[in-house]
Amino acid sequence: MAQKPVFTERFNATNGKGGVEGNWSKPTRTTKEITTDNQDVWRFKTCSSANKCIKVGKGKEIGTATASISNVTKANKLTFKAAAFGKQTDSKVIVTVKSSEKTIFTKTEELEKEKYIDFTLPFNTEVTGELTIVFSSVKGKMFFLDDVIVYAEEGTQPDPNPNPHPDGEEVAVPTIEGIAKLKEQTDNTKVRLLIKPEENARVILAENDIVYLQDDNHAVAISKVVAEKFTTNFAHNQHVAGWIRGMKTTINGVTTLQATTETNADSLLIANPVTEIKTEPKNCTAAEAKKHVGEWVNIQLVSVKGENGNYTLNADDNTELTLSEATKEVVKNMIYDGALVDLAGVITLENNEKLLLHAVTADDYKPLTYVVSENKPYKSVPSTKNNVNIRLDREFISGEWTTLCLPFNATINNASIREFDHMDGNTMCFKKANEIKAGVPYVIKVNEDKVNIAAKNITLEPKGDLTAGDATHKIVGTYGINPMSTDGNQFTMDKNGNLLKANTENKATIKTTHAYFMAKAGATIEKLLLEGTPAGIVETPHQPIATTLRVYTIDGKYLGNSTNNLPKGIYIVNGKKYIIK
Predict the structure, then answer these.
(1) With contact defined as beta carbons under 8 Å apart, do 124 and 76 qualify?
(2) pLDDT digits (tens, 9 = 90+) for 104-120
(3) N or C, which end of the chain is more exposed by having fewer CB within 10 Å?
(4) Tens of pLDDT, residues 338-349
(5) Residues 53, 45: contact at Cβ < 8 Å?
(6) Left, alpha or beta for 220 (phi > 0: left; psi -120 to 50: alpha)?
(7) What is the DSSP letter of 503?
(8) Largest Cα–Cα distance in the chain?
(9) What pLDDT does residue 251 have?
(10) Which of 65, 56, 53, 76 shows the shortest CA–CA distance to 4?
(11) Whole-model pTM?
């Protein structure tokens, strides 16, 4: 039976140098600049434009030119011509032909230098549907490619843009480049979505019959693809490239490519195994999440009211959040009344109005993180929680002393940490510590403003003692927002490490995860010794309080309440430098 071309690529639109008589080298265009006669069909890796042809490969790098041809009918032959680059010998072209992810053949052909060879490769079976042809170089060799033609039996022809009209006419289907452009299309429009490799589109979640895709432009380039028979091929963080047909719609607030009778995924390539850098959810408030429908987000500071499956989730702005049934199952043993949490997942709109979160749990990612905030009371877990994540929501100022008490163990880099050591008279002395232990109050000074204190995969225990000290003097941590007593026995601390005493006119408040200093009735605390120099007491309005004479060596050793009979040297007396000559 006679044959006719059903696909022709002569690279007449390709504008470069080389690949012609008299010039078999030096193409001048990069991969991104390649223009072809069938622009939507080709994908290139390490290729260059030449003179109405292309060069495949670069130096020692292997190049590939891939053509994905849609809706061929009874295709049975491929022809093309190729030539070695420059004066290279032993150059080869590897040709792989696939149909519906099934390899028809892979053949390796020898090339000649400074001369095109015409190749004819018959198929061992007729191909109907999607046809993929891959031309590859070998390591260290390059070649020119031109005049790629696919033939089929006479009387058949490709249908590159099938979109049956209700009256039987065919309407051209537009090719949409990228997920962002898809969002701009009118709903119920049939399209051919092209996702280029450089867009870094990833699978975020494959749930039921839905695949959520996200590329590097999180703010706008979000879509979900409803293609029921293909979702089993997808997994979290796989890189997706190529094209797929469907109908653009909007479902639950998310731009959607809906499957149609013409939909197939033969030309949608999925990286497996995954080697790309992993994506992370975008941190946002619940109100901001409404601007990122379809994206993977981490909604911060959500309050839980109720438990045992009967609870509500509300953010600070009173935005209510609901969880998908699958997500409820994931977090059911983590939710408890009064908890403050971050919740991560793909956001959709339930009934196009209410935020609905779909958890991402691949790669052991945890959709729920407990939060301890200095601005909200912390309600301790009612029972031990294993293998959970937790973080601190609190601001620090570089170079300033403050107190800290956490319900979890933590390591803080680039910080000075002090824990209670002993009382020296009325001076509370501290020693250096290397880490924060759960339920223990500390005095710390960070050396940078932005400090991220968090812990992953830990065991979180119910509330501990929160105190350190001796029988009459203590430093006490707090998990609530509490006013200080004005009886003269409770103190907080300023940024320089000075004690502050509340009075009736100016009552101080201790925030969650902070600590205060306390002495029993009849006792007092006059100073803190944090770094060798004792810091004294000031009242909240910063009025100094007289103290008895206390003498220390320069390294903080207490010597008594008199300077008599001391040898020559430098001392610290009542917090000031004192020199004996």
Answers:
(1) no
(2) 889 999 999 889 999 99
(3) C
(4) 999 999 999 988
(5) no
(6) alpha
(7) -
(8) 120
(9) 79
(10) 76
(11) 0.63
